[in-house]
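User: Structure tokens for both sequences below?

Assistant:
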Amino acid sequence: MLDPNEAQWLTVSDLYERGWTDPIIKRLPAPTRGTNPHHKNSPKAVRLWSLEDVMRLENRPDIRAQLERVAGRRAGRAERRRAQELQRQNRAFLGGLALEQAFDTQALETMTEGDRTAMLLVRRLHQAILSALYDTQPVRSIAEAQDGLRTVMEMTGADVRHSRYLKNPQLLASCAPWLGRGETKRERSLHNLLQKGYTASLLRVAAVILYEYAQRGEPVPAEQILALPDFPVRKLMDSSLYQIYLVDFIPAMIRSQLSDLITVDPKDEYPEARMMQRRFVIHVGGTNTGKTYESLNRLAQAESGVYLAPLRLLALEVQESMLERGVNCSMLTGEEEDIRPGATHIASTVEKLDPHRVYDVAVVDECQMIADRERGFAWTRAILGCCAREIHLCTAPEGLDIIVRLIESCGEAYEIEHHGRKCDLILVDQPIALEDVQDGDAFIAFSKRNVLLLAEQLRQIGVPASIIYGALPYATRKLQMERFLRGETRVLVATDAIGMGLNLPIRRVIFTRDRKFDGLHNRALRPEEIRQIGGRAGRFGVYDEGFVTATIDSETIWQGFSAPVEPIRQAMLGFSDLVLRVDHDLLEVLQVWNSIPAIEPYKKMPIDRYIFILKTLQECGLALDKEQSLRAATIPFDEREEELMDYFLLYCGQYLAGREIEWPRRGKSSLDGLELYSQMLDLYYSFCRAFRQPVDLDWLRTEKENTALQINELLVRELSQKGKSCQVCHAPMPISSKFRVCYKCMMKRKKQSHIQMHGKKSG
């Protein structure tokens, strides 16, 4: 059965999502049957169409017109649904606005006596009902309910023994004239609805409890009250004041405040950029086409400028390049900084852009990352909000359309420069053996474990390798790259991190896997990823040709190398600091912000990480204010790593207590332990900077350099010809092993320990 990957084949569901209808689908070539690319484990075969055929048909004018009409109809239906939802929210908002007054002590003090009586009536009845429903001690519950109702009766002047009151509970409705009041028809309708629903339920409950109280003169068990046929439990649960206030009114209030603060069109959040006459130069090309090089030449000529990188290693590389050209350039990332006195330029990661600072020239690298789920918002922010007179955007071809759309929405001028490769890139669509390694090879794996295992396999056949993967400290990555550049190692073993602009003399890019875990799913590589990584082969000036191949026979790689790449259709959108001005809990504000749909062509970034951190802070009783909470939630660290999270919470507690932020403690001297310690140092620095706490930069710099050197020495020593060995029998061991002795010696020790223990028991 055909097992295509999701990047090259589309199911009928995919076509429907693109706006296709059955008549249009019939115009495609006959489908292939194969495994559903979205459900690899499903044995059921489905119809599949190639992406190339779909895109060819979509480019026809008549088909494009049909798809636009379908999209228009769908947009109309979606708009009607949004209007209905908005109407419901408005009704909830108006009702909540009235009901909120019953819980506002200051508002009650300014009301007339009649209105105040009505508000207190609803408030006391509501509190009595909640007490009766949710308290685990029935006697106390009913006693509190009785006390509340007695207070209500005293306020309204009613006599609990008055039979007319019990027979006609609607008399109490006259004590709440505000429920039937409203200036507009919509308001009156809503108030009537509330009166018939929730208020009527309150009155029925009051009548039941009062009746029992008057008849027996003693507390009634809560179970009996809840079991009475007239007790409207479901109605109270469905339309209680608490639900109306919390579920409808609070989000509506937040939504209203957000709409007042945050503009509908994201471009309008950057008024300083809108007041400038910016000019864009879009550099379009694949990997190794020189687009970034030409942009940096222009940056070096400018009186002031900023370079925005996807990686801090690239920011450091550009800073060093600028300094070599005689340009005074600082460097700023989330984990470190090198601010030089009198610097006219700065190289930073894209998230660190200051949208209020004006530059002559800006360079934004790897702009196709604008669609990245976690970080794409930073590229959107840079394009819309960077205050530079001339902005150079470097992107892969799939990013061109969305970039042009954003620039045109700002009404600004742009030009497009296409860049081609200066040396040929050749696909070798036959798998190679590991033993066929050549100098200048780069083996690509997609996890730290696979990188280390592959490096160990190369060591065993006598091939020293440099290593690059995500958890490796940046200083160690640089040391490993320098070993490769100097020829101390013959090959490079890396994750897909090398696809991001790192200039290395690579002759062949060799894939060892055709799938990767992207944080959500273990999926097949996409054509754009294969090209981005494979394009690193064949550096101009070093090799005349570059080659792309694999150690596995993979149709994903062979076909993906030349498969059409879909253009990016949406730009990721982040939330603004303006959320701090909304007068509600930050957690609630972010959740409401996330529920508000973004306009095209934007898509809101996932905020799961922020929600998790904010909830954890609340659960731990760390009472940071809103501005402090947002600062804490945006600190870059891996919140899934338990020890890092413990240090983060410790630092928050020390900050609130006014204590000095303590240095992290070094743990194990293993590879994992040193990498974790390096991340702790980054967290320490980032937290202190975010909360303006003093940092011992000399100590920190020394610790980071020593840790990076230790990791590098560990990799060099254990990937040398001798490799890592057992401390008992000196047998070779894989570098990825967490133990100091081999499995054979470990089992031998356990056996000896068991014999000794057994002998002691026998004695």
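Moving on to the next sequence.
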Amino acid sequence: MIRRLSARRTAPGAAALVALLSLGAPTFAQTPPAGGGGATPETTSGPQNQEPTAPAGEETVYVWGRATRLTGEAQAASEGVVGYSDFETRPLLRAGELVEVIPGMAATQHSGGGKANQYFLRGFNLDHGTDFAGSFDGTPLNLRSHAHMSGYLDINFLIPEIIRSVEFRKGVHYADEGDYSAAGAARFTTYDRLDEGFLGLDVTTDGEYRAVLADSLETGETGDLLYALQYEGGDGPFDRPEKLRKFSGFLKATGEFAGARARASVMHYDNSWFATDQIPLRAVSSGLIGRFGSLDPTLGGDTSRTILSGSLEWERAGLLAYVQSYDLNLYGNPTFFIDPVEGDQVVQVDDRWSWGVRGHAETEGRLAGINARTRIGADAHTDVIDEVALYKTTARMRTGTIRNDQADVTAADVWADLTLHWTGRLRTTLGARADLVAFDVTALQPANSGDGSRTRLSPKASLAYRISEGLELYASYGRGFHTNDPRGVALTVDPVTGESADPVDLFVDAQGGEVGFRFEPSSRFNISATAFSLELDSESIFVGDAGTSEPSAGTRRSGLEISSFWQPRDWLVFDATAAWSHARFRDAPPDQNRVPNSVEFVGMAGATVVLDDGWEGSLRVRHLGAAVLVETGDQTSEPTTIVNLGVSRDLGSFEVGLDILNLLDSRDNDITYFYESRLLGEAAPVEDIHFHPVHPRSVKLVLRREF
């Protein structure tokens, strides 16, 4: 949390990642990139995105991303961009918490530091992705037909210090957002160059540690080479030591080519861990285990991911190509001993390659005498999945095969939108996207093999009206979708029982709209509010013992989100968000229409102090409201409130800080479920609360040495 911002050094030698701290902050007041299709956003090219330097003689400049003026630019009140200044002072427990800079979004963890987070937004328990899309420098991160859940989104590889900005959107009214984005989308963009190298070390009282090294080198008049290395390890606070071993490495080269800003990067991530999953309440109440205990000490897994990407970005066009490899072995046992002999442990296996291209272009001119901007784009993505499987295991030893499939999945789309500025106050955006998904599944059971393709068209529309220079109203409507697992589309036989099974539709329709306003009277204060509604024809529910995702009934969600930023003094910043949601199954009877694990309220607030003498501080609170756990509403989770505090001091080239995570030592839960499980000695499965506690209070020492 203790990174200082400064102007870029042009002297020879290593420039540094801490520039991420440094260089990036001045850019946050720029308009978010409009480049479509998820192609790499501009960070240094284009006149509107020139990275400013600090005035001569001034060492530190803070420009807050939440202060970015979006009136006149945004399609909706719910979209925004958050820059590094906004989250550099935040005490973070895990990289996945970076999504919590998105108003109304929360991330929790229930299975160690290598499994994707649970995400909550707009009344969704997004599980590990499904209806929330993520990208890293333009490369899509969600994984189709994944072993754990189609749409799986794992961002544990992120190195927070090199994230320049997080651009977020919500809803189905953006033409350049496609699969898995019904609830929202986030684009993580890294720095091109960093001003000051640094070596960092974090150590906690729970026995966890993190080391990070980063720097930038100038490779010519217009070129830069950025590198960052991160290693995390330790045992954590749970009775079963986590033995986390996580490595992330990133290398990025930038320069000029063919009149464009050219970028090439490689990211590699490798992680292994032991996990303490959710545990039944009765096991704790009886004294069998403690709150931080485990009923299966061999859970956890290992995973790796490598992404190679290259992009060209002109002023009004962009092109991105990428290739990535991915593998996962994830051991889980949510029900324990329904099989009293071998137990219920399984391993989910995923091994794949994927590649794709994305492009976009835009023009501005006049159409029938009206100022107009037209954007067009296209994307293509292929997954070659060599193994997506579920095996029966005992203590990580395979004892049987439940399913073992291969799949090739190709998705392609074209999209376009037209923005018309009817007057200086009124503008409209009309858009559409056409999507095609083709698949070829080869299953262990031949009856579940199959191929096919499906297409769909999704219209979009938005309206914005500027009442005054700092006040704008918005209304949007659109149709979107998420795709189901193609293995479920080809399914004819249940892989567990051998009985006939009904296939699912490939495309699941989503439609929704929102209205809102944004008030930005100055760069020191803004507030936005959005009322939304979203309907889905079904939602994916993972069935662990079959290795499949089953569709639920159709759902309807509505809600209200409010987000605000206030900088009363140069050295003091407040921010707050509050989100309410109402989720119901559409066609179920009133006494059975509650959507399990839909959190009805998420609230966050923070205060940040940055003093001229080098002192910095941050106090943050996150509240996750209660959620019903079953359709009848008879079982509910308890609310969760966490307070984090961070203080640091800049001593020149050396910085030292102290984070207190879970300051009030809350005994709340990260996640709560209600389902059947069976303990050793029980005659039959028992319905019970299953929970994973939040980490207890811990103190983190944060050290940084700049060079």
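User: Anything stand out in the second?

Assistant: Confidence is low (pLDDT under 50) at residues 1-61.
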